[in-house]
Amino acid sequence: SMEVLPPLSRVVRSLVELSELSEDENRKLELKDQAKRMQGYLMGLSEVSELKDEGSVYWLERAGKKNQIIHLRSAPLDIASVLRRDLFGKQTSIIMTSATLTRKGKADCFKSQVGAEEVKEGIVHSPFDYLSNMQVRILMDSPEPMSGNRDPYLNYLVEAIHGSASAMEGGTLALFTNYSDLKYAYHHLLPRWQKIGRSVYAQGEGFSRSELRAKLIEEEDALLLGAESFWKGFDAKGPCLSQVIITRLPFENPSHPVMEAKTEILAEAGKSSFIELTLPSAVIRFRQGVGRLIRSQADVGDLLIMDSRILKKNYGSQFLSELPNPNYESLSLSELLGE
User: Fold this and answer.
1) What is the 3-state secondary structure (H, E, C) of 249-289?
2) Is position 64 within any domain?
3) What is the largest CA-CA distance in the chain?
4) In the chain, how many domains are there?
5) Cα separation values, 312 from 144, 282, 307, 309, 337, Å
6) Is the residue at 147 inside a domain?
7) Tens digits of per-residue pLDDT, 110-161?
8) In which domain, by residue range, is 193 found?
9) Helix (H) or strand (E) segment spanning residue 200
10) Which residues pair with 59 in a beta bridge?
11) Residue 108 belongs to some domain of the structure
């Protein structure tokens, strides 16, 4: 790997030599530390430029406000073998807990993904009374979110969020699968919410996640629009979060390098990446999103699912079967708005 980037190799060598020549103990340690860091960069660059591991996928990513920061990324395509060897094979006690590890009441899918096939599983049912405490409504006439002309969908999105959230006495969390739809909704809802004297907040509009949570709890009747990290681990108990809106079923971006590479492997084996990958991970994320609503035994709330594909597509039943309350009402936008 030292031959890959000769100038960087020379810097590493010079740092090592300088550290050996230095008589000042602190400087010696500092130079050694920097040499070690540079060596790490060198190894990373050489791994990416030579695509060293056949079992990994490598890609470049732009980041930062002006897209001027370039990240070199790599990810292993199979983590099961590594975890089997380095974690489960170590004869140590391990407990893995989560509310969303199972599918159809079994953890098989998760166990094979992480190499924990031999691990015992136990399923504990929720202490919450979802049948009494959670109302589920599904909109049945939402336009196709991915159609060429997105205006009908975006207008529908804004009207449905505005109508359902402004009718709530408490607060609402609307979950999005992408930032462009979130931004569109925010800018169109803001003037309407200012008119009714209530706050609307959005991820990426000046506040951190913990500040947004504090505002939702403090104001008790705000509307919060969130994407990725708000689907999981976001906790706001009581009436400040009286409604969760799932704007779209949370399918991952199929063009992400890791998804693309896994899709290629499955295609070679004659398997469908949608059935094996996309659908299972979307169902888990859907469950995580639904889980934002009822956070304690006394909590009550409304769940509004805006994606009509859950009723119309064959795969919809896989999402519906994971609802904690299976009794849902399907309605049109005009019925929702009371027209």
Assistant:
1) CCCCCCCCHHHHHHHHHHHHCCCCHHHHHHHHHHHHHHHHH
2) no
3) 83
4) 2
5) 11, 17, 10, 5, 22
6) yes
7) 898 899 988 888 888 888 999 999 999 999 999 999 888 999 999 999 999 9
8) 130-336
9) strand 200-202
10) 73
11) no
